[in-house]
Amino acid sequence: MATSLPFRDINVHASASHYAFSSPSSPNSPTLVVDRPSGDLRLNDGKLLGSKRVSSIAGILGIISLRLDKYIIVITKATPVGRLRGHMIYKIAATEFLPLRERPLHDLDEDTYLHIVKDLLKNAPLYFSYSYDITNSLQRQSDSNPVLPLWKRADDRFFWNRFVQSDLIDYRTGNSGRLGYRGEQPGIDPFILPVMYGMMEIRNTSVKGNPLTFVLITRRSRHRGGTRYFSRGIDERGNVSNYNETEQIVIINDAASKGPVSYAGDGGMSEAKTGPLAGREAQALSYVQTRGSVPVYWAEINTLKYTPRLQIRGVESAVQAAKRHFDEQIRIYGDNFLVNLVNQKGREQRVKDAYKQMHDYLVPAPAQKTYSDEKTAEKFNVAEPQRDRGEYSRLHYIYFDFHNETKGLRWHRAQLLLQQLEGPLIEHGYFRGVDMPGDSMGRMEVRSRQTCVVRTNCMDCLDRTNVVQSMLGRFMLTRMLIDLGVLREGERVDEDHAFEHLFRNVWADNADVVSKSYSGTGALKTDFTRTGERTKRGMLMDATNSTTRYLRNNFYDGPRQDAFDVFLGTYLPARNHLGGWVFVDKRPLLIQSVPYILAASVFLVFVGSFTRRDAMAAVWPLRVLMILSFIIAMASLYFIFTHGTFYVNWPKLNTPPYAHEGYQEALNNVLQTPVIGPLLSRHERGKSDARLGFMEEGKKRIE
């Protein structure tokens, strides 16, 4: 049975009554018709007459409903990344929104929805393939059914456009419920294109003269997607923030896997070199790691201070959610080695302790019995394993105080963590598959499997996590190459300097992509990842990125979080709009005006300081104005940072409950001040209607 793969070329035809999508390379395939303005879908045998061809597209990203209209999001430009086992991988370079209404309706909210979603897609690293399932690791692909359509094989966690493909998938499965949508419609399968959010680099290189293809893939989960300070911890369904799966792949004897030219030692898309491995069977080796936020209910609350306020709910309240999370992790990956890099002192200690408490809830300590020595009065305790610890005994908690161990630029001490993990890493191994030349489906013969995963986290799951994951990746790569015969026992892959340069830069690129997706800037400590040592230039870059993170996380991440919520379906504009403008600033006008008063005061001080005055003119009026402006500027600045909750750019759609709480608390404090309070006392727009349903009885909060 032939596999139904997405169309590689689609022509879009538009008329006042519909959009029609057809593939010129598959003239016998049905045409997908989207009626305007209803958005109803249907398949038409042959081409529709009377419609005008608009353009050719690379694929349909999905259909999204905003407040007033529906839009078909199409991929208008895609750039090739490289070939993986003969399959071309593409990165989305441009998209376009096709409105269903012939005359688009505009208002403030609709235009804002469009702007934030377009901005998200413009900056998002989105990848796809017409014939290869990039959402699944090689090991999971070996267990999947290659006959199924590509979208049915996709891993739901990493099928990033799954929500906006809902209309097409519902029509395909016959679950739409609309009149005329009866039964399954397999003819629509080629129009459903799974897209992955993350990072992918494919590099042709060699180690000690042996040609190979080195691939690094990071897949970001679509569940609990969001930005650094607006998405933390775990939700009730067991999804954690900033969850990413990173897969490191080595392919040998496969001329069909090629990538673009990048670094020294990289052969690019040129013909594969011949070497000691030439003529042998094509093999693919894969090692998978994960990262994700600490699985408890916790948040960091922005108040314009450099260090946000930490809030952690009682660990007991998150036990069921954590069980759902780790049930899935154990089912997919087997044993989980939970590497916690959070500081054991200072403000991070509470997060570290909460994670350890959660692990102890799930994995009770072995029972202890007290025995007495027969010859002496001495007593001693013996830990006896419990038989009823269940699946959670496959969770292995490992704590490593990264900052304390590596302080003073002693980065080599990170190897202490590797020493703890070396035994389990070797025992649980990696995936190894061999191509079967006679198999038309491209399946592999499995030689070995990876039976565990290392799940690493720090506070953000970014900078410290990146350093540790690249270290583990290098160790496992060395083991792979030793098993392949490329290296001898005792040799290390970093002894090949050209390849080490490529390896470090690919992992540093991965760190930057993951960090930009979550925090808005490149990763910190990438100078160590790229060069193996900390440099003054790298420290300066870290300071710049830290400052940029502060500005973005406080003043720009609100709209970014709103865009994630709209695109991923956690907020539905068409259903949640209850009248009134969602994006209108509802703060009291006096609160809104303070930054403008500050800017005007600073401007007057600046002008007064540099304006040339006539020798005969009186000086004191200008000095009085400058002094008054300076006092007003300082008072405005003090007010802004004292009541920072007013000036954080919070998400407008799924506003966190703690933001409502903080806003109401700040407003109550201002109302009690003798100067501004009377001016706001009659202002009703400042009141919050927050529904604090999360504060039900029995859920304690630790401030």
UniProtKB/TrEMBL annotation:
GO terms for biological process: phosphatidylinositol dephosphorylation. InterPro entries: SAC_dom. The chain crosses the membrane at residues 593-610, 622-641. Residues 117-520 form the SAC domain. It holds the Pfam family Syja_N. One of its GO terms (cellular component) is endoplasmic reticulum. It comes from the Eukaryota. One of its GO terms (molecular function) is phosphatidylinositol-4-phosphate phosphatase activity. Keywords: Membrane, Transmembrane, Transmembrane helix. This is SAC domain-containing protein. It comes from Trichodelitschia bisporula.
